[in-house]
Design brief:
Length: 109
C-alpha cells in the first residue's frame, strides 16, 4: 500500500471520530492493521490541514497530549476546537482522557 492510500484510510477513520471525543495516532494505526505506523498516521494528520472535512484536531498522542497543535494556524486553534466540542484541556493535555478517547477498533467493529 502506498502512502497516499494509507493517508486516505487514515482520513476515513478520522472523519468518524465523534465531536467531543479524541483518538490517537496509535489507535488509528492499530485499527488499520498497521500497529507500527503511528508516526505515519501523524504524517497524514500533518498533511490534512488544507482539508476542513478532516477533523485533525481530534487526534492526539497516546496520553492525550496535543502534539499536533503546532500544525494548526494560531497557537491555540487545536485546543479551541476541542474545547468548543466540550473536551477539556489543561497544559496541552486532554483532561479525563480515558473518558473521551474513542477507539475505532471497539467502536467500528
Amino acid at each position: 500500500m502506498n502512502s497516499n492510500d494509507f493517508f486516505k484510510k487514515v482520513y476515513e477513520v478520522v472523519r468518524l471520530v465523534p465531536p467531543g471525543r479524541v483518538t490517537t495516532y496509535g489507535l488509528i494505526a492499530k485499527y488499520l492493521g498497521s500497529t507500527k505506523s503511528s508516526r505515519t498516521v501523524g504524517y497524514a494528520m500533518n498533511a490534512s490541514h488544507t482539508n476542513p472535512d478532516i477533523p485533525a484536531h481530534r487526534v492526539v498522542n497516546r496520553v492525550g497530549l496535543l502534539t499536533g497543535k503546532h500544525h494548526f494556524s494560531g497557537t491555540f486553534l487545536m485546543q479551541n476546537l476541542l474545547e468548543s466540542e466540550g473536551v477539556k484541556i489543561k497544559n496541552d493535555c486532554v483532561i479525563n482522557f480515558e473518558k473521551v478517547v474513542w477507539d475505532p477498533s471497539k467502536e467500528l467493529n
